[in-house]
Amino acid sequence: MRIDLKDPGLFERDEFGEVLAWLRANEPVYWHEEPDGPGFWVLTRYADVVHVYGDDDLFSSRQGMRLDSSPEAVEAVAGRMLIVTDPPDHTQLRQVVGRAFGRSAMPRIEAVVSRVAATVVAEAVEQGEVDFLDVAKKIPNHVVCELMGLPREHWEWVGDTTTEAFDAQADEDRVAAYGELFLLFTELLMERREHPGDDFISMIAQARQRERGGVDGRELTDEEVIVNCNGVLAGANETTRYSMAGAVLELLRDPAHWHWLRAAGPTGIASAVEEILRFTCPGVHALRTVTRPTTIGGVPIAAGDRVTIWNSSANRDETVFFDPDRFRPDRTPNKHVTFGAGRHFCIGARVARLELTAFLTELLSRVDRIESAGEPRYNSSNFTWGLRTLPVRLVPATAGA
């Protein structure tokens, strides 16, 4: 089998799952050559993926966490942005950023999520025929923008620019998009320092002051606040929409799932959310750099080697998940790694689950059935992957149904 996990066409054609399945069965620790780079290891089995996530001393995030990151861009934020730090920097940053998603913040977050989901789904149902990606992207984007206190007139621009920063093929386009976002957050941070509110940016700015003399005696810099605001924005916008759209596609493919969900109620929705996350797995891979010689699956790995862990493959590991290539909304237990694991477990996981739950609840209450209105198409990214277009008709539920 031809193995090229950097081939955009493999993902655009939705053929990468077959490659990962072959690797799981035949070469679960695989050395992947690169014509334009040093090469990297590919880990496809659940146990190996969890092992790497669980040892951030041996497998460092500081040298980057995706295959196509430019070394210059990584170096600019390494040790400052949560996703490209190791302890002890990671510990302090996570404590500060995590406060915005802690238990005390949940009532406000839940209220925002419920209101946004109701509004967006109602508008889509009224429209009738839609590209569901246009619907799905609004929910996480509107939620995170409101929680951050971003001016309403910036929301669509922020969503589009975040996508450009993640998905642009050319390094210069990605750098330019990130630069525009950093400038916006710089301006907002200065403003919130003068006039704080109850939004995410204000909380991070205030937490910076409270952390003075904290865990390691170092306060967060303005740059750390700005790049982590950008990291939260990107993580919120670029993953949940793919899970929502992927869920609609599975409900469209098998109406039995739709009928089961309508009958199952909140418990069914809760299990369906976890299965949607496992099955769609928008965060396809993560990168780590080995800090000292080790072995994985009996294969020697050298210090300095890059190791990629393929979440989407771990979520289809036959030794962990029964009938893994089938979407089963009643699946339990469901110990997927869609949010990662260990210290780098996604800080926004709780919000993503809230968004998916509110989205499904609104969809089931407002829609009688979903019909296809065109062919689904996928993006070409091997990092954050999912549908880029999904034309559907939403047939509204009748009153009292």
From TrEMBL:
<dbReference type="InterPro" id="IPR017972">
    <property type="entry name" value="Cyt_P450_CS"/>
</dbReference>
<comment type="similarity">
    <text>Belongs to the cytochrome P450 family.</text>
</comment>
<dbReference type="Pfam" id="PF00067">
    <property type="entry name" value="p450"/>
</dbReference>
<dbReference type="InterPro" id="IPR002397">
    <property type="entry name" value="Cyt_P450_B"/>
</dbReference>
<dbReference type="InterPro" id="IPR001128">
    <property type="entry name" value="Cyt_P450"/>
</dbReference>
<keyword id="KW-0560">Oxidoreductase</keyword>
<protein>
    <submittedName>
        <fullName>Cytochrome P450</fullName>
    </submittedName>
</protein>
<keyword id="KW-0349">Heme</keyword>
<dbReference type="InterPro" id="IPR036396">
    <property type="entry name" value="Cyt_P450_sf"/>
</dbReference>
<keyword id="KW-0503">Monooxygenase</keyword>
<keyword id="KW-0408">Iron</keyword>
<keyword id="KW-0479">Metal-binding</keyword>
